[in-house]
Amino acid sequence: MRKEYDKMDIGLLHLENKKVILKLIKHENEISRSAIAKKSGLTPPTITRIVNDLILNDKLVERLGLGDSSGGRPPLIVKFKNTSNHVIGIDLGATYIRGCLVDLNANFISEIQVPTELEKGFESIVEKIVAIVAKLRKRKGPDEKIWGIGIGVAGLVNSETGIIESSPDFGWSNIDLRKELDKRLDLPFFYDNSTRLMALGELKMGIRENQKNFVVINIGYGIASGIVAEGNLLKGYNGFAGEFGHISVDPDSDVQCKCGMYGCLEALASGHRIASLGIQELENNRSEMLKELSGGNKDLITAELVANAALKGDKTSLEIFDKIAEYLCKGIGVIANLLNPETVYIGGGISLNEGLLFKLIEEKKKKYLLQSNLKVQILPATHGDQATSIGAVALILNKIMNLELR
Amino acid sequence: MRKEYDKMDIGLLHLENKKVILKLIKHENEISRSAIAKKSGLTPPTITRIVNDLILNDKLVERLGLGDSSGGRPPLIVKFKNTSNHVIGIDLGATYIRGCLVDLNANFISEIQVPTELEKGFESIVEKIVAIVAKLRKRKGPDEKIWGIGIGVAGLVNSETGIIESSPDFGWSNIDLRKELDKRLDLPFFYDNSTRLMALGELKMGIRENQKNFVVINIGYGIASGIVAEGNLLKGYNGFAGEFGHISVDPDSDVQCKCGMYGCLEALASGHRIASLGIQELENNRSEMLKELSGGNKDLITAELVANAALKGDKTSLEIFDKIAEYLCKGIGVIANLLNPETVYIGGGISLNEGLLFKLIEEKKKKYLLQSNLKVQILPATHGDQATSIGAVALILNKIMNLELR
DNA sequence: TTTTTAAATATATTAAAATAACTTTCATAA
DNA sequence: TTATGAAAGTTATTTTAATATATTTAAAAA
């Protein structure tokens, strides 16, 4: 990247124009050279030269054939070559490691999932990543290219050094994943925090293009968020931006969070909390449904099980979700009033249960959002449980589109 | 500005390099052509040509003389021409309108303050702005140039249309200030929300350069904030970003905010609240000092008076500030944990009382900030009660440095 | 005084895009 | 059926702004 006081030269000028043309072709999918000229302001000869370069050297564009004439020579249509160009995305979670091979339009070619088996240690996890990559590489055709590997890690990643500074999920601190993977992978790879990647996926490959202000909330066993503001994915001064789980939503609460503070959203509204409230209700014998579904075994009570009970109409479980939604709404209120996003996406395990949570939040949001912010849309994350994988893919796709990869 | 799919051409290339050189000269203040070459990567001939252009045409750079030789021809030093280039900054507040004439290094040449007199209406306010500008223009020398006028408005400004969509302070909605001022001013002028401008001033003209993540909290009769994240001043989807005053810090509070919600930071910790708590204590006869300072007249009790009492050691007033600091700290905790800023600046009337508030916040912050965010610095706004004016100047200076003004 | 070194400038060259002229191809209409 | 014109794309030339190289200027070191 060009630094603050770096010159602009003719090479960068050319690169900029090449990027403009590539992005236009990807955006329009099918387009003629003369249409590119109109949209970009570049002249036809320049476009011919650059498009040919993209076809012959970068192999990111292909000729499609003739388009319809409108009273003259019919246009030669070119197309973004999404097939035969692939990316590997990896979601490195505490319970599963998931890998996927996708084309540049995010169509899944192949997918693999293996248990993480944390107890076997860091070395074993590296091994599993390498094995997944090797397997996925076999699933591509002979003339097809894999541009790189994106990895979403459940932990704090320093984007400068590549060091995983800390990961409560894995129990890691100061792990140099880059160094280890460098030895074992011969493809370009990049990684970042998994929730941040969910936001990147939403930014680059979400349902709406050109959204510049939104937040992705990831609710699993913990609660985190990825924030996009003015089109930028926020990292913050030390890379900690997005710690949505540790804003206080009930200062008088006696539930202590892992972080030591009281009343954190994560302590009050995470998957863990749903399960523990469920267990409490089971022990107090307040729900027949929970008893039935778990067979009375409290170890079998999970957030998912409580959600199922609620969906089946269990009043106690519904009350739990009502409470959770109330807390989440307070948190969303804070984020909405502070950042004025266009959309708040909710992802992670909790968002998969058919709209129960969204219905509750929709009912409650009036209480916590400024009148002027009520228009904010609260939606499930576009890519569901593949959100991190897609985000990891977006990390690579972004570099391809910026011509940073060969 | 260049749009997403717009070409880059050789004119823009040249403009970019001109900007690089201008910014380098301003940043270094005094620098030789060959040093510019080293820092920018541009070659000496190019630099000579562009620097001469900046000296002769733009008049933003001047020759200073010879520097020290280090064994060869001594360098010809050039300098950013801050004197004889001026900007007018205007702080349009509900009680006062303040105008200042400053040079491009933010040195004050002249300053004017007039009461706003809201009751005389919009037309009268426009008149006052025009009069301030006319007066300030007379205070510049004959060969000196005023580049433009920046205006900070206490209200929500739509930066696309220039419409002031709403301003509780002025009781305005959908006011087209641009249209009115266009008729009366023959200098380029731009305006934005005053708190956002405080943040812009901190970004472009603050004590630290190159801070990319920070927040400015403006505590006056209301509470607002300006957020800079990844080097960008946040506006949000509808331009509402920064409504820090309306995050809930005490959901159980029975103090209702003007916005209709309960427990808003603005309702609990603004200048208004400090005064109203002071009045309450006076009426309950709990403070001799407040009684003495106000002569028993509750209409004379202001936030400033309570602050003075606290500084003189009045226990009741200290308790008020303690409570206020507690609420503010909760709010700062939310912002710090969510955005991971490097610094949180506090400005507005409340920040002027000699560090009392900062001492209290420093003591309390452990309770509300994640361990990893405790390093965040909480400081008074660099430019004190001139923060909005300086921000308004920064708005223009920014355009000058981007060569958007002639 | 001569040589060396650094800074600035003058002149020639280069890279990339713009311009202009030209070819190809088809729709339309005489 | 065949001119005609318009749109798409190509080729050749020009323009622009930067770079490379050579030259001039000026002071420090030999």
Automatic annotation (TrEMBL), chains A, B:
Transmembrane segments: none annotated. It holds the Pfam family ROK. Belongs to the ROK (NagC/XylR) family. This is ROK family transcriptional regulator. The lineage of its organism: Bacteria, Pseudomonadati, Bacteroidota, Flavobacteriia, Flavobacteriales.
